[in-house]
């Protein structure tokens, strides 16, 4: 009994054991395989494309709001003129540009939503409404910078009141294009080509002879029989010998039984 136990302990001690480094590398390899499978999923690319679209859209909305905030001063100066804060018109002039901006932002949000559903927005009234809103902002800003209340024209202010409304106008035109392209990229990334359904082909029935053969020999005989069947001829003794390497009389016996 002690000899058997000693032999078992020696066998266990002779078996190689994984070191800590091997276990750590094996865990890293498993993690790398899981990450590769996840990153190769086309749905993940679609999610990343949609997140990128949201990020770009938020940035564009932020810059558009800043630009409209600046143009609001030019519109107020154009409408208020030499009026002071004591005049209600001076306060009411601050509401004109936010009203224009609210209409423009609502229009852009609606246009972006339509494009996200694959509906192109190319109607002429929509384009004209955007152009009128932004054109009015451009004219009032440039006019107020050329006719300041103190009479002193600042070239830098004229430039800003000219460029910023143009940038706002281009942002309003570009944002729907960004939405459309990002949605197209998302749909392309999510597009998974479904496999074409094909009619399943029945596997040829395995060849069975009356002679009992071991499993590996029977498998070799099945493969050779299927090959011969594909050639459109009957299995011969030579075919059996090529597959099993058996004596000629034994091969003839197997071939005869299969032919029967």
From TrEMBL:
Per the record's keyword annotation, is tRNA-binding included, yes or no? no
Residues in coiled coil: none
Question: Region annotation Disordered: residue ranges?
Answer: 1-21
Protein keywords:
Membrane, Transmembrane, Transmembrane helix
Q: Where is the composition biased (Basic and acidic residues)?
A: 7-21
Keyword 4Fe-4S among record annotations: no
Protein species of origin: Lentzea sokolovensis
Which residue ranges does UniProt annotate as crossing the membrane?
61-83, 89-108, 128-146, 158-178
Identify this protein by name: DUF2637 domain-containing protein
């Amino acid at each position: 009994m002690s000899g058997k136990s000693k032999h078992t302990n020696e066998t266990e001690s002779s078996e190689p054991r994984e070191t800590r480094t091997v276990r750590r590398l094996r865990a890293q390899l498993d993690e790398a395989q899981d990450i590769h499978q996840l990153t190769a999923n086309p749905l993940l690319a679609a999610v990343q494309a949609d997140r990128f679209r949201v990020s770009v859209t938020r940035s564009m909305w932020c810059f558009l709001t800043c630009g409209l905030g600046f143009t609001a001063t030019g519109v107020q100066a154009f409408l208020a003129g030499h009026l002071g804060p004591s005049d209600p018109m001076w306060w009411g002039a601050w509401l004109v540009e936010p009203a224009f901006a609210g209409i423009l932002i609502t229009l852009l949000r609606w246009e972006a939503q339509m494009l996200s559903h694959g509906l192109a927005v190319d109607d002429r009234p929509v384009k004209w409404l955007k152009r009128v809103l932004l054109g009015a902002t451009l004219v009032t800003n440039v006019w107020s910078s050329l006719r300041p209340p103190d009479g002193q024209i600042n070239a830098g202010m004229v430039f800003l009141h000219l460029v910023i409304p143009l940038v706002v106008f281009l942002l309003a035109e570009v944002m729907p294009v960004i939405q459309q392209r990002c949605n197209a990229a998302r749909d392309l990334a999510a597009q998974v080509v479904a496999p074409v359904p094909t009619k399943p082909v029945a596997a040829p029935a395995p060849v069975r002879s009356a002679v009992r053969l071991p499993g590996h020999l029977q498998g070799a005989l099945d493969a050779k029989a299927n090959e011969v069947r594909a050639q459109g001829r009957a299995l011969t003794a030579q075919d059996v010998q090529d597959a099993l390497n058996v004596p000629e009389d034994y091969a003839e016996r197997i071939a005869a039984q299969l032919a029967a």
